[in-house]
Amino acid sequence: MVQAPNVHDAEPIPEAARAEIDRLLQSGDLFRYTAPENAPVSLLEAEFAEMMGVKYALAVSSCSAALFLSLKALGLPRDSKVLIPAFTFAAVPSAVVHAECRPVLCEVGDNYRIDMSDFAAKLDDVQAVIISHMRGHTSDMDAIMALCNARSIPVIEDAAHSLGTTWNGQKIGTLGKIGCFSFQSYKMINAGEGGIMITNDAELVASAIIMSGAYEHNWNKHSVLKDVFPAIQNTLPLYNLRMSNLSAAVIRPQLGHLDRRVNDGRANHDHVAARLNTSPWMQVPDCLKPEDRAPDSIQFNLDGMDEDERRAFADAAAAMGVKVQIFGLSADNARAFWNWKFIPDLPADLPSTRAMLMRACDVRLPARLTRAECDFVADALITAADQVMGARRAYGT
Ligand SMILES: *Cc1c(COP(=O)(O)O)cnc(C)c1O
């Protein structure tokens, strides 16, 4: 019999990382700017930019750091308003606050995607937009880019959890002015911690490079037009958000595994989604037509259950070894906007996003799970819902 799968461990790091890590440990060469050229971090940047089909990549300490540097590199004055979806991870409004800007929250619908009428209504008042492809769900990027381009509002894509997703065949993270990705352990590529930002804008990346910690003339070790730098040298603070060579050595051999992970993750997701959709109590929202997803988790809405039943459902699934987080019902959830009390003028309510969070479930479904393990997860969820709702109907309440 299949056991409840461990959904928290990542895949082993490819064997190829070992020789390079040994070499780095031998030489002690862990700082990205020590070697005259070809430091692992620089090689990662070149490989990632090529993989994504963009001119520039800057590797940093986290996706949060990439988002922060993106806002700073846009030169947004203090107290600029930045529109973000109200369904995202607390790191996103935090990056906005860190950049001394003010987050404006946009409503999200029950399909986890940005509510375009609320987005359009709030757009005239903001100086930048961060589109968080939360849990890899892609909002209507055609509409978003058309609205933002018409107003010359820069779009930063928070693609932390969307590496490998495409929209109309175009790679997510390359649609906006800047794309930011995470290498934290729960993402497609795992270095424990790490992030990277991509762009085709030389001046923007040059500012970000300096602020990431390329002090003095270390920008010489980046493959960006050198004539951009003298004008900004010493005009920008150094936030020191660099990536270490060890992280790059862990990431680089994983790039070649991305396509397989994306395909496996999508197959696992679609298999479990089809099974959950056979239950009258669960519904997995469809993605938008132009999107090809790269999921490593599954989200679904509970239908026809009151709050006690939704809690009982999560308990019943947990008893079978499958952890379900209902975003709005788990204490202190970092994805529930009402917990972001650090935001100045946190809106009193966002009814559509709140309603979604109160019945939307989150279950990890890593790409490495076998079909039998995926079926274990689906069986547990379907059985848990039937147990809770069957009991309710038996008592006729
Ligand atoms: C993980 C995640 C982040 C934060 O990434 P870090 O690298 O941990 O800073 C931001 N946004 C989304 C949507 C994420 O999933």
Molecular structure report:
This protein has 397 residues and is of the alpha/beta class. It has two domains: 16-254, Aspartate Aminotransferase, domain 2; 257-396, Aspartate Aminotransferase, domain 1, CATH 3.90.1150. The chain contains twelve helices and 14 strands. A hairpin with a 2-residue loop joins β6 (166-167) and β7 (170-171). α10 packs across α12 (371-395). It is globular. 46% of the residues are buried. The mean pLDDT is 96. The site of pyridoxal-5'-phosphate has 15 residues, from α3 and α4.
Defining key terms:
alpha/beta; 4-stranded antiparallel β-sheet; Aspartate Aminotransferase, domain 1; single chain; 7-stranded mixed β-sheet; 12 helices; 397 residues; binds pyridoxal-5'-phosphate; 2 domains
CATH superfamily of the largest domain: Type I PLP-dependent aspartate aminotransferase-like (Major domain)
CATH class of the largest domain: Alpha Beta
Care to count the β-strands? 14
Q: What oligomeric arrangement do these chains adopt?
A: single chain
Strand share of the residues? 5-15%
Ligand kinds: pyridoxal-5'-phosphate
Radius of gyration: 22 Å
The shape is globular
Topology diagram in text:
Blueprint: H1 16-27, H2 40-52, E1 56-60, H3 63-73, E2 81-85, H4 91-98, E3 102-106, H5 116-123, E4 128-132, H6 141-150, E5 155-158, E6 166-167, E7 170-171, E8 178-182, E9 195-199, H7 202-213, H8 245-255, H9 258-276, E10 282-283, E11 291-292, E12 297-302, H10 307-319, E13 325-326, H11 351-357, E14 360-364, H12 371-395
Parallel strand pairs: 2-3, 2-4, 4-5, 5-8
Antiparallel strand pairs: 1-9, 6-7, 6-11, 8-9, 10-12, 12-14, 13-14
Helix pairs in contact: 1-8, 2-8, 3-4, 3-7, 5-6, 9-12, 10-12
